Amino acid sequence: MYLPDSFCTLFCLEHLRLTRNSIEELPADFGDLSSLRELYLDGNRLRELPESFGRLQGVRVLDLYNNDLDAYPPCLNALAGVTYLDVSENPFFQTCSLEMAAAFSGRRTFAASTSDVGN
């Protein structure tokens, strides 16, 4: 499933829950949803996040649990205001270093199953 590009014109949207919708890809301009404070994308099929995702500066809660993210999305580093992040149950966590997880968790509440974290 894909979201239409027009979805990104919902500029006043503050809370968005798209849990378990089999979404495979987000629109390139998803970062235009600048009013978002809580974003739940858990239980989808996302393999990557658009580069614009890093513009979601208002997001405080971000749930990416149980997707198909093969690599840590670098755009997450730009989201300094996130206070809760769940990226557990994604393929990249099987090869994630403990050092990376520890560094990230030092800045935010970070949910990850320790059984998923490799060396």
Main pleated sheet: 5 strands, parallel
Mean pLDDT: 86
* Poorly predicted tracts of residues: 114-119
Distance between the termini: 34 Å
Question: Which labels suit this protein?
Answer:
119 residues; 1 helix; globular; 7% helix; mainly beta; 5 strands; 5-stranded parallel beta sheet
Describe the structure.
- There is one protein chain.
- This protein has a 5-stranded parallel beta sheet with strand order 1-2-3-4-5, covered by helices on one side.
- The chain is globular, with a radius of gyration of 14 Å.
- It has one helix spanning 98-105; strands spanning 15-17, 38-40, 61-63, 84-86, 109-111.
- The protein is built from 1 helix and 5 strands.
- The protein has 119 residues and is mostly beta strands.
Strand and helix map with partners:
Elements: E1 15-17, E2 38-40, E3 61-63, E4 84-86, H1 98-105, E5 109-111
Parallel strand pairs: 1-2, 2-3, 3-4, 4-5
What is the compact description of this entry?
The protein has one helix spanning 98-105; strands spanning 15-17, 38-40, 61-63, 84-86, 109-111.
